[in-house]
Design goal:
The chain has a seven-stranded mixed beta sheet. The protein has one domain: Nuclear Transport Factor 2, Chain: A. The protein is built from six helices and seven strands, in the order H-H-E-H-H-E-E-H-E-E-E-E-H. It is globular. Helices cover 29% and strands 31% of the residues. By secondary structure, the protein is of the alpha+beta class.
Length: 193
């Protein structure tokens, strides 16, 4: 399925516009469509977790799913170093981070949350250097969390989840060069308090 997406001409997701995105999001689950001159394609639209073993997904998408499962949720530093470009930049609600600062945040999550998972639930591609996903983070808050930005938070023993929208830009060598993330930080922190 995503082989067709990767053959679309290059177009930045950031410039795709509301009309193209809205029209495609109304299609049935599992649908994909090329928007003619827009050259914009949408992958799956359901809430099921995508699998790195699904060969209908492109290699790049499978690697993105795998890094969430293995590098982020389960701490594989070699996989992280291979996936993230050395000059990677993260742009989030609280500001910019280097790859090492982002990895420290992931380590704080693993240290505080049991059953910590990072799952991709939908993928949009411009057929070039950009991918966008809907990503779900979840776990059980059982130890002190030091990654809140507000100081350490004491565990509450409860399950939590938060969803983010990621936009990824890849470098010519295939490594992840840049990421933009949007999520409701207040709603996430409210679950931890």
């Amino acid at each position: 399925m995503f082989d067709e997406i990767e053959s679309c001409s290059r177009r930045s997701i950031l410039g795709a516009g509301v009309t193209a995105g809205t029209a495609l999001l109304s299609r049935p689950a599992g649908a994909m469509q090329s928007r003619g001159s827009d050259n914009f394609a949408l992958g799956r639209t359901d809430e099921n977790d995508l699998s790195a073993e699904d060969l209908s997904l492109s290699r790049r998408v499978r690697e993105l799913i795998r890094i969430g499962n293995v590098g982020i949720a389960r701490e594989d530093n070699a996989a992280l170093a291979a996936f993230f470009h050395p000059r990677f930049r993260f742009h989030g609600p609280s500001g910019e981070l280097t790859r090492e600062q982002l990895w420290d945040y992931f380590a704080a999550c693993r240290a505080a949350f049991d059953d910590f998972t990072v799952t991709r639930q939908a993928v949009v591609s411009d057929g070039g250097d950009y991918l966008a996903t809907r990503t779900r983070f979840a776990g059980k808050f059982v130890r002190t969390f030091s990654g809140s930005g507000e100081g350490p938070l004491a565990p509450n023993g409860k399950r939590f989840e938060y969803r983010v929208i990621n936009i990824f830009r890849y470098a010519p060598n295939g490594q992840l060069a840049e990421e933009w993330v949007q999520y409701d930080t207040n709603a996430f922190l409210a679950q931890l308090r």
